[in-house]
Amino acid sequence: MTTTIALSEPTRDKLKTYGRKGETYDQIVSRMMEIVDRELYMREVHRRLEEKEKFIPLDELE
User: Fold this and answer.
1) HSE on the CB side for 39, CA within 13 Å?
2) What is the 8-class DSSP label of residue 5?
3) Which pLDDT value is given to residue 62?
4) What is the pLDDT of residue 58?
5) For labeling, which of 19, 31, 51, 62 is most exposed (least CB within 10 Å)?
């Protein structure tokens, strides 16, 4: 099933710049969402490690 999402022309044009050759808008948006999900996950992991005080910042490893 597909749906239509209304975008302004500037937003559509900007979205195109994130795409790869032959990639659909659906593929572009899906890839972007995966990137955001990974980054949010990594931030949460980092936050939890800091709470446990098992995390040592890289600049303190010397």
Assistant:
1) 6
2) -
3) 66
4) 78
5) 62
**How many residues in the chain?**
62
Look at the pTM and tell me if it is higher than 0.70.
Answer: no
Report the distance separating Cα 35 and Cα 29, nearest Å: 10
Distance of CA 59 to the CA centre of its chain: 26
pLDDT of residue 7: 95
Instruction: List the chain residues with pLDDT less than 70.
Output: 53-55, 62
The three-state secondary structure class of 54 is coil
In the structure encoding, which two tokens stand for residue 45, read together? Answer: 């992991």
Q: Is 13 left (phi over 0), alpha (psi -120 to 50) or beta?
A: alpha
